[in-house]
Amino acid sequence: MLRPLISYASPVWGAAANMHLIGLERVQNITVRQLARQP
Length: 39
Known about the structure:
Blueprint: H1 5-8, H2 10-13, H3 18-36
């Protein structure tokens, strides 16, 4: 099971703007989808 980056480093991301967090979540979701397609 992968631990989401944002929840792993939550104290660091706490002061980040919401628009930046959304961008990070998008990148994370794309990466997980790509990893899931690997043989």
